[in-house]
Amino acid sequence: MSDSFPDPRIDRVLYSPEEIQAAVRRIGADITADYTGRTLTLVTVLKGGAMFLADLCRAIELPLTVDFMAISSYGPGAEGSVRITKDLDDPIEGRDVLVVEDIIDTGLTLAYLLRVLRQRRPASVSVCTLLDKDARRLADLPIEYRGFTVPDRFLVGYGLDLDGLWRTLPYVATLHDEIWEAE
Ligand code: IMP
Ligand code: MG
Asked: What confidence score (pLDDT) does residue 179 get?
């Protein structure tokens, strides 16, 4: 593990803290307008979505609750097969649910999650993601709110990790290609 910080493997900042916060405010205002008069349940997938959720929930001017799920994928060759390692604490039947994601890549994880959530008969389910890596999309997903459409690069920071590291960076950055290609 490198002992320099941030890290020489980080290439360049793609979205600064200011750009991220501007996107959070814009999305928060859109959600506030769209759900006026309703009570929202924000559902976030740990751990990557935690940073975005923490900022976004304070940019929405509505009564809302937050709940968390954790999932683990079965690894290469088993894309889209996902196991719930921590379920929601509360039922979502009859609730207006907004899934808050850090990044949607192939979309297979989210497609699975949406199937699970819809079986619980919520009043509605919508999707909000900070980052949309749309070039790699395999599952057809409705994404109501997005921060940025991102290039097909491996990104770290603001929740996104490589082997658990770099989630806590206040910006989103790319890694040097040789590191990304080794993954
Ligand atoms: P999907 O099922 O391919 O959409 O996988 C989405 C998940 O893959 C995200 O929630 C992240 O955990 C991870 N992921 C996808 N792209 C990146 C990236 O560029 N950096 C870090 N994690 C990523
Ligand atoms: Mg995730």
From this structure: 67
